[in-house]
């Protein structure tokens, strides 16, 4: 099964193309960005010990995830759960063939990261992600400023990060619906994506933060955005039950990077009513025996999904994870149960 092979092995069988981050890509190779340790955990109500976050990142790396968002350097007053990110990234196991990124909201966050890099013998992270939104209402709720103000704030952050050799990924939230101002104008998604690319972002992740997207609306949105932005620089991120269907719709439009979160964890604290992200296990399962290939050991990810769900005392939201676990229990000899 392709999805269980390491990325390097998968890529060898395709004509190689190297993107701006140096990762080998092929026309049907899908990069999955594992956002569980950041987006997945940021909204959890109880304090998660750093050792659990570190173990989660380590397990995801060992399960073959090639891009892992390890945490964020945001204000702890806004998102208390991410307060210990410096400790987490300093102590996590950093595998040489994986990329680790952190989310940065402003110059203060970047300075905190750069101080950490300066005092670390080896860089704990490889790149940063910056974020804004397609509506002023959401940008204000999430970052206390309008879109225009956020772009003004982020431009020097991106420049400084690039000067330090840190590639920058861009997020645009609420690309379909805004929880505060309703249906989103896709032209705004296009313009904000372009502004982030002009700042030097190597890729834009389009977030259906509320999770109201359907394959039809996702295609419509991508069609408008790709009028101005090259398609291989887009990624798709989803937070609700249409995630897998929307991910497949995005792939059919040429998107080759998908954000996903182990066990379907997460969501933005400033998107009221939204449930978790599309589960990594579900995305991997949906690519099984398909025209697409990806990295990641599905068995190890299923176990990791159950492990973190148990640690958090919550239900595992991955349908595929639950089905694989049930099958394994069914197939196990009775003596081992
Ligand atoms: C942007 C700000 C900081 C503006 O917040 P603000 O209140 O306007 O900023 P401020 O400069 O007035 O700072 C407020 C306090 O925070 C401190 N502070 C300020 N910055 C930092 C920092 N970097 N690190 C540590 N501390 C910081 C600052 O020092 C001050 O402390 P005080 O003086 O009151 O003691 C705030 O709104 C913020 O941190 N927002 C982040 C919210 C967030 O993390 N949301 C979730 C991530 S986005 C997401 O999940 C969506 C995504 C990306 O996954 C895609 C999708 O699905 O849509």
UniProtKB/TrEMBL annotation:
Alphabetized Pfam families for the sequence: HMGL-like (PF00682)
Domain of life: Eukaryota
InterPro entries named among the record's database cross-references: Aldolase_TIM, HMGL, PYR_CT
Location of the Pyruvate carboxyltransferase domain: 30-302
EC class name: lyase
Single GO biological process annotation from the record: L-leucine catabolic process
PANTHER family: HYDROXYMETHYLGLUTARYL-COA LYASE
Entry protein name: hydroxymethylglutaryl-CoA lyase
Species per Swiss-Prot/TrEMBL record: Rickenella mellea
């Amino acid at each position: 099964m392709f999805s269980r092979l390491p990325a390097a092995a998968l890529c060898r069988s395709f004509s190689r193309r190297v993107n701006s981050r140096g990762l080998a890509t092929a026309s049907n190779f899908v990069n999955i960005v594992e956002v569980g340790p950041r987006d997945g955990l940021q909204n959890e109500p109880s304090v998660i010990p750093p050792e659990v976050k570190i173990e989660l990142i380590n397990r995801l790396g060992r399960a073959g995830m090639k891009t892992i968002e390890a945490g964020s350097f945001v204000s702890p007053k806004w998102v208390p759960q991410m307060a210990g990110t410096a400790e987490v990234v300093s102590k996590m196991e950093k595998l040489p063939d994986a990329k680790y990124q952190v989310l940065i909201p402003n110059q203060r966050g970047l300075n905190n990261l750069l101080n950490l890099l300066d005092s670390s013998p080896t860089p704990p992270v490889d790149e940063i992600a910056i974020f804004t939104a397609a509506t002023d209402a959401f940008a204000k709720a999430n970052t206390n400023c309008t879109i225009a103000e956020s772009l003004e704030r982020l431009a020097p952050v991106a420049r400084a990060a690039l000067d330090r050799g840190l590639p920058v990924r861009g997020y645009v939230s609420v690309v379909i619906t805004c929880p505060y101002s309703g249906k989103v104008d896709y032209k705004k998604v296009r313009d904000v994506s372009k502004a982030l690319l002009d700042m030097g972002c190597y890729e834009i992740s389009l977030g259906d933060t509320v999770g109201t997207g359907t394959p039809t609306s996702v295609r419509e949105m991508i069609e408008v955005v790709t009028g101005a932005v090259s398609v291989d620089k887009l990624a798709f991120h989803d937070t609700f039950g249409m995630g897998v269907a929307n991910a497949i719709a995005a792939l059919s439009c040429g998107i080759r990077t998908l954000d996903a979160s182990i066990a379907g964890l997460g969501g933005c604290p400033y998107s009221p009513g939204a449930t978790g992200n599309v589960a990594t296990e579900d995305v991997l399962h949906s690519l099984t025996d398909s025209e697409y290939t990806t990295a990641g050991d599905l068995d190890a990810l299923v176990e990791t999904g159950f492990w973190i769900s148990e640690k958090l005392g919550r239900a595992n939201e991955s349908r595929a994870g639950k089905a694989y676990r049930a099958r394994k229990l069914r197939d196990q000899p009775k003596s081992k149960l």
